[in-house]
From TrEMBL:
PANTHER family, A to Z: TRNA THREONYLCARBAMOYLADENOSINE DEHYDRATASE
InterPro entries: ThiF/MoeB/HesA, ThiF_NAD_FAD-bd, Ubiquitin-activating_enz
UniProt keywords, alphabetically: Nucleotidyltransferase, Transferase
Cross-referenced Gene3D superfamilies: NAD(P)-binding Rossmann-like Domain
Annotated THIF-type NAD/FAD binding fold domain residues: 9-229
SUPFAM superfamilies assigned: Activating enzymes of the ubiquitin-like proteins (SSF69572)
GO molecular function per UniProt: nucleotidyltransferase activity; tRNA threonylcarbamoyladenosine dehydratase; ubiquitin-like modifier activating enzyme activity
Database matches in Pfam families: ThiF
Record-given protein name: Molybdopterin or thiamine biosynthesis adenylyltransferase
Amino acid sequence: MNVNVKKRYERNLFSLSPQEFEKLREKKVCVVGCGGLGGYIIEMLGRLGVGQITAVDKDVFEESNLNRQILSDMNSLGKSKALKAKERMELVNPDVKVIAVKEAFSEKNGKDILMGNDLVVDALDDIKARLLLEEIAEQVGIPMIHGAIAGWYGQVTTVFPGDRTLHRIYTGAGNKGIEAQLGNPSFTPAVVAAIQVSEAVKVLIGRGEILRNRLLFVNLLDHEYFTINLSG
């Protein structure tokens, strides 16, 4: 290999070329939400060697997070999720710069948070906030990877500026999704976050087929996986 790669990344290079790996090291990704989905997303992006991750979350850990949120533990209760994401990555991969934003993503601060990033990953649990994230990502001109979970089920799509995909998916929806009734076990966020990260990597390196204008549904209870074409 012509690229000098540290031993920690050797196994990445069976799937990524040295050039693609170097490209990831130059990228900046914002993850909005550091809970069930976001914790896994940050963990995987960091282990891949993405150069900079901005972790956004106003919340602190509660006991109800312990069943599924990888960043949570007994010692983290009452502690900022965003700050824990930064501390976790300092232990896992100090090569990755993590910026902890201990604020709610809002219309007031959204552009400042997303500006300068190459991509944003939606790890929110609030429909109104997701729609706002899509709008501001469009204004800033960066793609967004959306993911949502509820019980045994999940969904993922990739949104480019101008697609307005979430505004079509959530037309007429309330502020909370069906997860309020179905809950979230430990395994669903891990699966959906992994798909989101794979989509993020494909967008960042420009390789592979992505879920643009398509919505992937995941049914882990019956092992059904299918996509809906949203381009019509």
